[in-house]
Amino acid sequence: MSYKTGTHVQRFFIYFFLIALLVVTLLPIWALLVNATRSTVQIQQGLSLTPSTYLDENYGILVGRGLNLPRGFINSLYLSVSITLVTVYFSLLTAYGLVVYNFPGKKSFYSFILVLVLLPMQLSIIGFYQYMSRLGLTDNYLSLILPSIAAAGSVFFAKQYLEAIVIADLIDAARIDGAGELATFHRVMLPIAAPGAFTLGIFAFVASWNNFFTPFILISSISKYTLPMLVQTLRGDVYRTEYGSIYLGIAATIAPILLIYALFSRYIVSGIALGAVKE
Predict the structure, then answer these.
(1) Class in CATH terms, 69-276
(2) Which stretch of DSSP H or E encloses residue 67?
């Protein structure tokens, strides 16, 4: 067997494996979306990959029994957009300081950030709740938005990205022209870091949209529930036998995430690839 033939065979198996992996990944999601359009009787009859015609009926059952799906969507959208903007801006600003400036304790500070990245939120949730309670921010979206100023994982990603793209000569030129440090960051650094900021924003938005644990601890008013929190209520007796409505509620939660990845996946790949290249 020639080298060229061996290359074709190897490429065939690689593509076959990737296609199989794609099918395994997408099949459960497609089945979920399809079940959102089927009735409870149809779902009990077995698996189907063809959409049905019970979408409107499932939606009517979902909202007719007290689940305010549009309100939950608005709450999740507001919270996710706010957290994304705060996370991206302050993470890039912190990373900019770590990359551009030299100051005593810089390595120790960065090591502390790495430790925070490794610590799960569950370890500190009790102290965090007590702190927010003393500030009077429980049952308030600020208790979820303000901590994103210090998102350790986002700072780590932003630092790795800025290290690859920072051009010291541009920063020095801006300073010579009389620009202040914040003006240099806003007018020089942010435009250059736009691909990484876009990628970081997508990750932050998805993480915030899918976050159930922290809002569940801090938010108590049903009117402020996010979509993941509302979906959790579908486990109650009211919806126990309404499988189509349950699937529709879950599908409503993941549909925006699927849309974001479908529209902006190329920006995610390009942003990560650019940040991984270092001189």
Answers:
(1) mainly alpha
(2) none
